[in-house]
Amino acid sequence: MATTTTTTTTTTTTTTTSPHQDLLISYNLSSSSIESLKPTDESEYWKRKLIQLLLLEPSYVFPNDDHSMRGFYDTVTNDKIYVHGKEQRPGQRGIRSGKYALAGSLIMKINPLAAYYYDRARQPDFVVKFEDALQPYLNNNVKSLLVGGDRGVMYLALRVLFCYLYDAEFRMKVGNLCTHQREIRLDVEKRHLVEPIKNVIVNTLRDFLGAHDIGVSLYKKNLIKVCKKNWKFVDDVIAIVFINYFNLFNAKKQGLGYCLDPDFALINHSCLPNCTQFTSTSTNEFQVINTLPIFEDEEITVTYIPLGFPKEIRSYQLSLQFYFHCQCKLCKFDDNNDPFFSIQCNKCGTRIKSPSFKLILTSPNLAMRQHVCTKCLNNLNQVVYPKNIKIRNFFMSLILFFKSVTGLSFNDQDYFKFLNKEFVKYIEKFTLVELIKMLVNGIYQFEIPKMRRNLLKNLVEIVVSDKVFPLHTFPFNVIIRELDNMESQRESVISLQDGISRLQLKLQRVFGVDIPSDLTSMLTFDNCLFLDVGELLYQIVKFIINPDNENRSREISTIFGADTLATFCQCCFFFFKQVRLSSEVDSIEDRLVEVMELYDTLGLNDKLTIGRCLSDLFDLAELYIRVTESQIAVKSAIGFLIYFPIDKDDCL
Ligand SMILES: C[S@@+](CC[C@H](N)C(=O)[O-])C[C@H]1O[C@@H](n2cnc3c(N)ncnc32)[C@H](O)[C@@H]1O
């Protein structure tokens, strides 16, 4: 294993070795005449530079998986990680760990060159300058693309092209990548996505060149590289982008944009990944960190898709977007026991055998497969279980049709019945693949119909208290996340009841859905998730101590009796203390001082232990999470316990 190179990206201007040197000189496109423009007319400099690169750059050779056995240009291998499969075709490679790494180690650090950040200030200078040169032509053409995903991919593809032309090292690295060009060419649906993006790029470049005399003349003489072979290289760039790009987000999981980094793109997918990635808020630095321990020679993996969905949904997305079938440990789980579509014993929490996701999507009324829990011999109640299965069908139906059923004026009960019937009808009408496709689309677009918010909240309460389904399973995870997002958009807590119901939902989301479903979030995102819990508790405390709230003493005592305020303050202090995000440290410090002073001034019970307070809080959300004085143990979707240590210094 080689242990030489580092992962830093250097920007090197291409030295053009064009066979058309005479033309370059006659059209003032030689490197020296362009360079002479820079100090006096910068915008002209960048226009000409782009024309020069676009027209005469000789190296429009994008990798092609089918007959590509080129040498691998390795800038990834170092003393921690190495590339395997270098001698194989693009697609067969991956990154492995060179030595054992404790969870939480920094595996890769990247400063991405080709990225589309929503915040323009983050772009490398040459990308901004090239884009400025194209802007008037781009503005005209981009209107044909929908704002959002397609536009983002188009902007990223254009930037990959700029980097490819301008940065020799980037070009070498892109040569390593897998592109699935053949699959994309044969994929009718993908062509529908590619064509509009390609049209915008081609029309923009054509309009740009057509607006400059030199461009027009060279175009006429057919000396323009870009338009040869019907602009095939634009297809190539888009294929590279589709297979290798990823979303950038910060440690709070807020999206920052899209990126194609050829080093990061060598990491393969797993639905049970050992690494996660995020971008720093203050710089563009992008870090890959392992969330599970990694052994020597073990493959480094990340997830390409959102986790927390049944295998059929994950497989559909992976084969649709990346053209492979995942063989990870999670995908090899027994179909009747899918961790993200399972039923549990509502007494001891053991997973019980039940019809698989696939079967439910072919015959929704299938009965339970087991009537007694084999572990604790609990009788699986014949009223409670079917009732919860109906709620699950209703939620799936809502995800499938939410757009068409939002305005229906049924009362809640009839709406519930109607959607249950529709679900059965749809299953009879559509094939399994069609239904999965519709569900996937629904998941990404789903919003809670406003007038059904209370119905959904009541149903979630039933699911939480009946304990037939773990909350991280589909479709409950989708509904709980959306309900919580909806509640979080409302500003302040308006009554104690409102605060408590929001707190229950927040705790259910963080400890019942997010942490158990996505192991990648364990080390990085938990600190941010805890920030949201701390903030909500802070709002509740503020509401309770507000003298305008006349009923407060009577209301409060119904929660944890005389120690209600003390419990909330302890937990609020504890959750704020867990937040390690540097961007939040200052505001949290003020909150911590405020809560501490309040505790002292009001003379709240100082005998309360944090273990007891957290335990009460989780019980309030009906989560029954094991808490001791030294740790919180949350059960992950695949059954092992995730421990969060409790530090004595994190308590009041
Ligand atoms: C971003 S690339 C990852 C690096 C790639 N293996 C290479 O050699 O360049 C994505 C492609 O890698 C392959 N791939 C990634 N994860 C995989 C997995 N778990 N099983 C099989 N193929 C995988 C697929 O062909 C996928 O389209």
In words, what does this structure look like?
The structure is a single chain. The protein is mostly helical and 652 residues long. The chain folds into four domains: 41 residues, no CATH class; 247 residues, Beta Complex (Beta-clip-like); 168 residues, no CATH class; 162 residues, no CATH class. Helix content is 49%, strand content 9%. The protein contains 24 helices and 15 strands. The protein has a three-stranded antiparallel beta sheet, with no helix packed on it. Helix 20 packs antiparallel against helix 22. The longest helix has 23 residues. It is globular and about 90 Å long. The protein starts with 20 loop residues before the first helix and ends in a 7-residue tail after the last strand. Bound molecules: S-adenosylmethionine. The site of S-adenosylmethionine (SAM) has 19 residues, from helix 10 and strand 7. This is SET domain-containing protein. It comes from Candida viswanathii. InterPro entries: H3K4_H4K5_MeTrfase (IPR050869), SET_dom (IPR001214), SET_dom_sf (IPR046341), TPR-like_helical_dom_sf (IPR011990).
Q: What is the domain tally?
A: 4
Strand order of the largest sheet: 3-9-8
Tell me the structural class.
mainly alpha
Shape: globular
- CATH topology (fold) name of the largest domain: Beta-clip-like
The description of the largest β-sheet is: 3 strands, antiparallel
